[in-house]
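ARCHIVE CARD
CATEGORY: sequence design from structure
SOURCE FIELD: tokenized fold
FIELD CONTENT:
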């Protein structure tokens, strides 16, 4: 995701189910990386 106002990008994650419904979304602070373990746990819950 690009923040045009600040001129920088940020990481975000959207988990979408088979019907196309967003089941989880999160925007991460600048300089951070999503934890794979957390994302895999959330995927298993869908």
């Amino acid at each position: 995701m690009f923040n045009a106002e600040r001129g920088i990008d940020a990481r975000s994650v959207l988990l979408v189910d088979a019907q196309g419904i967003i089941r989880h979304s999160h925007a991460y602070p600048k300089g951070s990386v999503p934890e794979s373990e957390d994302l895999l746990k959330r995927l298993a819950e869908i």
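CARD ANNOTATION: Residues 2-45 form one domain. Helices lie at 36-45.
SHELF: design records, drawer C
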